[in-house]
């Protein structure tokens, strides 16, 4: 949703933050309770907390390390590790522990936020000015100080601090945006508009959050139509964020509300920006630390809640992710996005009935949005409910309006559902339409051409398409297999063997590909190798309908070589 920090810079900041906080997942058992020898089981509690940290299980990590710290409250490294665990899980104990860690960057940032929330802006400023000028503080320090000066009524000083960074720094976009937000709150609209436009100009692939904040400033300065146009492209997208701007009323409401209404919220916004950048570059724990800092300042901050939920999903802590998504306020502009992600999460958790009900409920609430029914179709297709999936995709397509190049995945998915449910004419039409929208899309070419090969039709065209698909995706075993199988059907057995052997190298545990190679070996006169491949195919969980066919080949060989094989001998 929000990425204004260059990737390389984000990675360096992530490394610095973890280092400054004490890396939560280092393998050595340093920091173990000194009282462990006197308290049976305490060392195990500590180790289980460390292990939970390494698995990103924030709940267990915080529980166990807080328990260990209660029995050994003066161990310095244990204090640091427990602070990180408490902060990552959003525990109130983190603030108390932060006061005992004068050299910890995350602790320092948490204390800055606490002073700001209490309105103690002079003390907040003192803490900010003592932050180290490296790591996350190098970025957050100026932003935090700018917001603090504004809160103290010293907006001119805030502008003087941030203007050089907005106009010539390495992170111009984020500094320009925050300068615009400060000026907007100060009632200096023309200046705010200038820096909002500068932030947009520095971000060609602007996130929804940036469009909302900058567009809100434009709206308040009499440019509502221009601001709405900024959101138009996102509203036509296939992603879930489009649900937040699905209608003209949604877009107007999003722009009318102040995304940042106070200095404290501005600080949370800065922490969100860095958290999103770190997350986008694989800085998982660092991103979560900053997200938790933002939530301390703004507990119902939905963009941050969505980021935290994504982190838990990536770490396979699905119940924790579900609990976070449930915290999104129902009236929030991003509530529908959260609802769709919640339904998708229920799908991943195999709570199919709940997920289906959630998709259908959201689809009813948004009668023009294709996303809920497209996701429902995906869920049903993945569970081999192909006819139902095709019906869900029909609804999604009907809501998509005029289809463009970005819509080929929806037609491709519907084509697969129709093909698997026995409706080839509709499937073929969708595959061909998808290729009209996205010519030379390798996965569409592969599926269509492979099916033609299986049906024994359009073989020369299928071969041409598959050769092109392999050129585009030379390391995709399924596409390479399709080309090998087409050559087998066309009677080019040496070519088939060569490509099918390559496909097995790429996808050694694919039953269908091993079965295909067995057929090619048999026709090539390599019967023992063929039998080996067929036996291997049986061990690799083939579809139920393929098992008797493979067993018959093991008993009787390939009784009827493909008709095209005769071509090879002409």
Features:
single chain; about 575 residues; mainly alpha; disordered C terminus
Summarize model confidence as the mean pLDDT: 89
Overall number of strands: 0
What sort of overall outline do the alpha carbons produce when their principal axes are compared?
Answer: globular
Helix content: over 70%
**Helix/strand-derived class?**
mainly alpha
Q: Whole-Å distance between the termini?
A: 62 Å
How many DSSP H or I helices? 32
Q: Which residue ranges are poorly predicted, with pLDDT under 50 across at least 5 consecutive positions?
A: 6-16, 22-29, 563-570
Instruction: Characterize the quaternary organization of these chains.
Output: single chain
- Range of strand content: under 5%
State Rg: 29 Å
Describe this structure in words.
This protein is an all-alpha fold. Helix 13 packs across helix 14, helix 15 runs antiparallel to helix 16 and helix 15 runs parallel beside helix 17. The longest helix has 18 residues.
